[in-house]
Structures are given as structure tokens and as C-alpha cells.
């Protein structure tokens, strides 16, 4: 408010304006008695001079000194209403509401027709949460001066406190009608709309208030916040910029504008504003944590860690700084430092489940699963409704090979958060591990329904379709995975398997070759192509691929079965017998069953093959290995 505007208000009117706006749920920049009376000459110490001295002290924020001066004035002149009123204001300012109410009641006793005394007491009742008494006093003030907009504004605050928004709006409308050219009437109504979360209407009223008082930076600041809440970031930035122009040394304004820049993913400008904030408030630890977050979003981890370290130096008990620095260390792969920081956070706040959760994650990444498990158990104990914690424990159980326990945790996580694709995907991974492919397919399908653009989900469901011999469905899933990720070599490898099982050998060979081109060390691609060459009776190519697969990633039983089938197809019983005998030393029951099925299929095409019959007899007589 300019000096000219301030001078237009009487002392009591300015006091009413301060009280009327201080309860608004928005920023307020009015100052009690901004037009102070001249400093008192203490030599005389008359009641008036004491009151003037008290006003000067109050305006300097020294309410205790102000109360002392007002008390002396009252002692000299017990019927001095101005002294009682000002002392009430000072008591209210320091939260001594009962004392303030007693002083205002004294004024009312001295001057029962003083509307200002009623409205002052009403404001203190509002501050004390005694809204009905506040409304009664404001109503009495309005009866005495029905054309004064400020008294309606005062009653608005109590109605807001009682969540009686219809009555609050009615009073705010009356204030605007009575004083349609004053910014504070629109400011008041904007506050009601804000409380009602009708942000668009609040913005309209703030715009009107700014039209009448464009130099009041708090109006721009509050409208900026509302634009921000309304996701109108460009407009928010414009208002923050105007507020900064009006008050360029207010660090908080730069923080607000930085938040708007961040919402537009403009972290470069956000960092500039946050650096300016730090230059204005170099001792503010939170300014450093705010800038550290912006560095994090730009993946500038070293600068992020430096800022969190500065924040910790300024405020060694700032738990969140340890948590966030720990995460930065974790993102750099410095797991020991991350674990140390999460430990510091736990020491500061032993009941923070997030600290245990984070430390368990770092232990997990270090593959120290036995240390990860107690931490995630603690996190779940502190917050048993945290779906993410169950998910992390499920992952730990998965890595420990305890798939059923993992499934149990994912069940709990999904019950808490049924719309998260990663939870269905995690449970499906464990169903796959226990070879419950049907349930895995159901979960992968649910995950795809929730997010259809993740090639991993199609890869995984395709694998399950392969295992359940639904090769056309597998091929369709691998088609989708490849469309989403054209360089996904595993999708080509396993689509080649599906093509091979569908007797589409040329397509299978093309996919295997593509996979090998993407990853020359993909043993499964060589195996798949080797099988296809075998079925095409291109035995030399088949032998070369199967030999290469065994060199890259030996799988004794699998590789020997493949070689045995190759030699049997060539009619070479001697080599086939050696290979199958070697394979049977470590074969699982399922592998034996699958190979019996393969030989039976081969016999159906070549029923006179003596070698195939001998192989079938060998397989059927084999001891079972678990």
C-alpha cells in the first residue's frame, strides 16, 4: 500500500483493515498502524505520549514494550479508550487472546456505541476460534455502522472459520457493493473463494484487486500461487516476475517462480532463481535442498550432492537432506555412502519408514539381501499399508528364490494399490518362476491393460504363451514388443522359438540371425537357429550353431539333448547314444518328457527309423533326476 493510500485511512480504520485481512488463508501485507504517530517525547510522559510510544514499539514488532507503555497510560488515565484498544491489539498480536478480549470489553463498557471496539473483539474471538462470539460482535458493529465494508469483511473471517461459505460470500458481496473501488473488498472475497477451493473465481477477484492497487506485490504473489495451483504456469511466472519487480530482494518470490519453472520442466531457469534465493538467504538450509532437487531433475548428481551437503552443514538434524543425498549416492552407484546417509536419517528419526525402505533398496542393489530383508520388514511394520514396501520385499524374496513368499507380498501390494501395472508385472514374474504360466499370463495381461507401451510385458507374456504352446499368441506379443523396441534382441530370439515350434523355420532362422546381429553372444539365438537348421536337414550349419551356443553359455543337458537329436536325425546312433547318455546325467523330468515328445514327433514322420526307436527306448528307460 502506498503512503498516499495509507494516509487516507484513519488509525482505527487501519487497525480494522489489518484485523480483517490477517485471517485470510492467503498472504497479507498490511501493517498495523503503518502511518504511525510521531515518536513521543518521553520527558512529559502524558497518557497520549505513552500511547504514541506504544504504537511505535508495536510497529517495530516489540509488542511487549508496547503493552508496557499502554499499561502506564491506563494507570494515568483509566478511562482512556485508545490505550485499552491499542493494548488489546498488542495482546492479540502475541496470542494473549483472553487479555485482548478483556481490554476490548473495557472499551465497550466505556463507549458502548463504538463499532470499532466490537469489531476488534470480534477479530480476537476469530483468532481464538470462538466464531459464534465473533459473529455476534461483528453483527453488533454492523448494526452500529451498516455502511462500513470493513465490518462485513471482519464477519467473513468467522464464517470461513465455521465453514459457512454461503454466508461468507454474502458478506463479501456486500463489502464489494459498499466499496466497489477498493482492492481490499475484492481481496476479501478472493479469500473466501480460495477457502472454497474455487480458484478460478479467486483469480478473477485478485485481478480486480490488482487493478485498484497494482503496486501491492502480495496480490501478484497470491494470484501467482493460484495460477500455479491451476496449472497455469506461464501466468504464474508472470505474476511472480511482477512481485519480484516490486520487491526484488524477497527470496521467497524467487522460490515460487522456480517452482513454476520446474513445473514446465525448465530447470535451467529454476536453477537461476534458486541460486538467487541462496544469494539472498545463504544461511537457509531449505534453499539448498530446493536447488538440489532441481539439480537432481537435470541428473547433475555431483552438484545435487554438494547442495545437500551444504544443507546438512547448516542444519545437521535435517533428516530429509540425508534421505535425498542418500538417493543421489545410490543413483551414482555409491551404495555404501547411500547406506550411511539412510542410517543417519534413521538415527534422527527412528520411526521413518522411508529411511528403512531406502536403505533396504541400497542393500538390495548391493546384493546384500540378508541385510535388505530386516530393513524392509521394519518399513512394513511402521507403515503396513505401503504397497511399495511389499513390492520391494517381494523383489528381495524373488532374488532369494523364495517365489511363493514373493507372490504373497505382491498379493498384499495389489490389494492396497490395485491400479499399478508394476505390481501385476512383479507378481507375474514370480508366477513365471514357479511355472504357473496361466496366472502369469493373467497378470501380464492386466499390466498391459494398465500401460500398453512396455515391451517387457509383451516379451514376458510371449514367453508364457511359448511355454503353454500357444505359439500364434506368442508371435503376436513378440510382434508388439519389436514394434515398441526394434532393437529388442530377446524378442527376436523368442519369436524365432515360436516360429520354430510352428514349423515356420525360415522365419525362425531370420529372427535368430537378427538377434545374433544385435547380440553376437546370445546363446539362445544360436540354439534356436541350430534346431531350425536341424529340421531343415542342414546339419553342418546346425552343428556349428549348437556348438557355438554351448561355448557361449554351456547348458550340459540342454546342449547334449540338442546334439543327440541332431545325430539321431542323421541316423548316427553311436553319436546320438553318447550325447543322450551324457544329457540324461543331469536332465530334469520335464526335459526328459519334452525330448520323448520330440522323438515321438520325429518317429511319426519317419516310423522306420531304427535310430529314433533306440533313442526313444533309451529316454523311456532313463532314471529320473530332480
What's the helix and strand layout?
Elements: H1 3-7, H2 11-22, H3 47-59, H4 63-76, H5 81-93, H6 97-110, H7 115-127, H8 131-144, H9 149-161, H10 165-178, H11 183-195, H12 199-212, H13 217-229, H14 233-246, H15 251-263, H16 267-280, H17 285-297, H18 301-314, H19 319-331, H20 335-348, H21 353-365, H22 369-382, H23 387-399, H24 403-416, H25 421-433, H26 437-450, H27 455-467, H28 471-484, H29 489-501, H30 505-518, H31 523-535, H32 539-552, H33 556-569, H34 573-584, H35 589-605, H36 610-620
Helix pairs in contact: 2-7, 2-9, 3-4, 3-5, 4-5, 5-6, 5-7, 6-7, 7-8, 7-9, 8-9, 9-10, 9-11, 10-11, 11-12, 12-13, 13-14, 14-15, 15-16, 16-17, 17-18, 18-19, 19-20, 19-21, 20-21, 21-22, 22-23, 23-24, 23-25, 24-25, 25-26, 26-27, 27-28, 27-29, 28-29, 29-30, 29-31, 30-31, 31-32, 31-33, ...
Molecular shape: elongated
Helical proportion? over 70%
Number of strands: 0
Assigned CATH class of the domain at 453-550 = Mainly Alpha
Describe the structure.
- By secondary structure, the protein is mainly α.
- The chain is built from 36 helices and no strands.
- Helix 34 packs parallel to helix 36.
Amino acid at each position: 500500500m502506498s503512503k498516499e493510500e495509507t494516509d487516507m485511512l484513519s488509525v482505527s480504520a487501519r487497525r480494522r483493515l489489518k484485523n480483517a485481512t490477517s485471517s485470510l488463508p492467503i498472504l497479507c501485507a498490511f501493517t498495523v498502524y503503518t502511518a504511525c504517530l510521531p515518536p513521543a517525547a518521553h520527558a512529559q510522559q502524558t497518557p497520549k505520549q505513552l500511547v504514541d510510544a506504544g504504537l511505535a514499539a508495536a510497529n517495530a514488532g516489540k509488542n511487549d514494550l508496547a503493552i508496557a507503555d499502554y499499561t502506564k497510560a491506563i494507570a494515568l488515565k483509566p478511562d482512556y479508550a485508545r490505550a485499552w484498544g491499542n493494548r488489546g491489539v498488542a495482546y492479540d498480536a502475541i496470542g494473549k487472546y483472553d487479555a485482548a478480549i478483556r481490554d476490548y470489553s473495557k472499551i465497550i463498557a466505556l463507549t458502548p456505541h463504538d463499532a470499532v471496539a466490537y469489531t476488534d473483539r470480534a477479530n480476537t474471538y476469530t483468532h481464538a476460534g470462538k466464531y459464534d462470539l465473533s459473529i455476534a460482535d461483528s453483527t453488533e458493529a454492523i448494526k452500529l455502522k451498516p455502511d462500513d465494508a470493513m465490518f462485513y469483511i471482519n464477519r467473513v473471517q468467522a464464517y470461513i472459520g465455521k465453514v459457512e461459505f454461503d454466508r461468507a460470500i454474502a458478506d463479501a458481496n456486500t463489502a464489494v457493493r459498499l466499496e466497489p473501488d477498493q482492492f481490499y473488498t475484492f481481496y476479501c472475497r478472493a479469500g473466501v473463494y480460495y477457502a472454497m477451493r474455487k480458484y478460478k473465481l479467486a483469480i478473477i477477484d485478485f485481478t480486480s484487486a490488482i487493478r485498484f492497487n497494482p503496486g501491492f506485490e502480495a496480490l501478484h504473489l497470491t494470484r501467482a500461487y493460484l495460477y500455479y495451483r491451476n496449472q497455469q504456469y506461464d501466468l504464474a511466472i508472470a505474476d511472480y516476475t511482477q512481485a519480484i519487480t516490486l520487491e526484488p530482494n524477497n527470496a521467497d518470490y524467487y522460490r515460487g517462480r522456480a517452482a513454476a519453472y520446474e513445473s514446465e520442466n525448465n530447470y535451467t531457469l529454476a536453477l537461476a532463481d534458486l541460486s538467487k534465493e541462496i544469494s539472498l538467504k545463504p544461511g537457509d538450509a531449505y534453499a539448498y535442498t530446493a536447488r538440489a532437487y532441481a539439480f537432481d531433475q537435470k541428473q547433475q548428481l555431483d552438484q545435487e550432492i554438494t547442495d545437500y551437503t551444504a544443507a546438512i552443514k547448516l542444519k545437521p538434524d535435517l533428516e530429509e537432506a540425508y534421505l535425498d543425498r542418500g538417493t543421489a549416492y545410490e543413483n551414482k552407484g555409491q551404495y555404501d555412502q547411500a547406506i550411511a546417509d539412510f542410517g543417519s536419517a534413521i538415527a534422527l528419526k527412528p520411526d521413518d519408514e522411508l529411511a528403512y525402505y531406502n536403505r533396504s533398496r541400497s542393500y538390495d542393489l548391493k546384493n546384500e539381501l540378508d541385510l535388505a530383508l530386516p530393513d524392509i520388514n521394519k518399513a512394513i511394520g511402521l507403515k503396513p499399508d505401503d504397497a511399495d514396501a511389499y513390492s520391494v520385499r517381494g523383489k528381495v524374496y524373488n532374488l532369494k528364490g523364495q517365489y511363493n513368499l514373493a507372490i504373497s507380498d505382491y498379493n498384499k501390494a495389489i490389494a492396497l494399490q490395485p491400479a499399478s501395472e508394476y505390481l501385476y508385472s512383479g507378481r507375474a514374474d514370480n508366477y513365471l518362476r514357479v511355472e504357473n504360466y496361466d496366472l502369469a499370463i493373467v497378470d501380464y495381461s492386466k499390466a498391459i491393460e494398465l500401460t500398453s507401451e512396455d515391451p517387457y510385458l509383451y516379451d514376458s507374456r510371449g514367453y508364457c504363451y511359448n511355454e503353454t504352446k500357444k505359439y500364434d499368441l506368442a508371435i503376436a506379443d513378440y510382434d508388439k514388443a519389436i514394434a515398441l523396441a526394434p532393437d529388442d534382441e530377446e524378442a527376436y530370439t523368442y519369436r524365432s522359438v515360436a516360429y520354430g515350434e510352428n514349423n515356420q523355420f525360415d522365419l525362425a532362422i531370420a529372427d535368430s540371425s537378427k538377434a545374433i546381429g544385435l547380440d553376437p553372444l546370445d546363446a539362445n539365438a544360436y540354439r534356436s537357429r541350430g534346431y531350425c537348421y536341424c529340421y531343415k536337414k542342414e546339419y553342418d550349419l546346425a552343428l556349428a550353431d549348437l556348438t557355438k551356443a554351448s561355448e557361449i553359455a554351456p547348458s550340459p543337458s540342454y546342449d547334449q539333448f540338442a546334439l543327440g537329436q541332431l545325430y539321431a536325425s542323421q541316423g548316427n546312433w553311436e553319436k546320438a547314444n553318447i550325447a543322450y547318455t551324457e544329457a540324461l546325467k543331469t536332465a530334469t523330468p520335464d526335459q526328459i518328457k519334452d525330448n520323448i515328445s520330440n522323438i515321438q514327433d520325429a518317429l511319426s514322420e519317419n516310423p522306420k527309423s531304427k535310430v529314433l526307436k533306440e533313442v526313444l527306448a533309451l529316454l523311456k528307460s532313463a532314471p529320473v533326476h530332480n
